Amino acid sequence: SEVTIPSYEGQMGILKDHIPLITFLRPGLILINQEKKKFFVEEGTVEFSNNRLLILTSKVQDISNFKKDTIKGLIEEAEKKFQDDNLTDKEKYIISYKIDTLKEIN
């Protein structure tokens, strides 16, 4: 089985016996290939060690339960935040990934 996560280093595929790692999640999709499941996540941390994957996040949503109106609302909210002149480059980077992922889902 393979799990693909959206990390700051890029999309990362984790297979059985992968080297141990700890990384941070950026907005994107977590793909569980064997079960063909997709989850939207905004942020969090990932730890993989001894063939155990631990994903810690405050919010994750199964995209099969997403409604078009919900996605549209999240995109509009993120685009509005993106227009804030006081955002740091990091905040703009995160919001842009969120917008791109939500548009991909939609």
Task: Describe the model.
Strand 6 (44-49) and strand 7 form a beta hairpin. It contains two helices and eight strands; from the N terminus they run E-E-E-E-E-E-E-E-H-H. The mean pLDDT is 93. The longest helix is centred in the last third of the chain and has 17 residues, at 89-105. With 106 residues, it is an alpha+beta fold. The chain has helices at residues 68-82, 89-105; strands at 2-7, 10-15, 21-25, 28-32, 37-41, 44-49, 52-56, 60-62. Strands 2-1-4-5-8 form a five-stranded antiparallel beta sheet. A three-stranded antiparallel beta sheet has the order 3-6-7, with no helix packed on it.
Short description:
The protein is an alpha+beta fold.
Walk me through the topology.
Elements: E1 2-7, E2 10-15, E3 21-25, E4 28-32, E5 37-41, E6 44-49, E7 52-56, E8 60-62, H1 68-82, H2 89-105
Antiparallel strand pairs: 1-2, 1-4, 3-6, 4-5, 5-8, 6-7
- Round the Cα radius of gyration to an integer and report it: 15 Å
Our estimate of the beta-strand percent is 35-45%
Q: Roughly what percent helix? A: 25-40%
Structural class: alpha+beta
User: Which consecutive residue ranges, at least 5 long each, have pLDDT under 50?
Assistant: none
Give the strand order of the largest sheet, numbering strands 1, 2, ... along the chain: 2-1-4-5-8
Termini separation (Å)?
Answer: 26 Å
The residue-averaged pLDDT reads 93
Query: What gross morphology would you assign?
Result: globular
Number of helices: 2
Topology as H/E string?
EEEEEEEEHH
Largest sheet: 5 strands, antiparallel
Extended strand count: 8
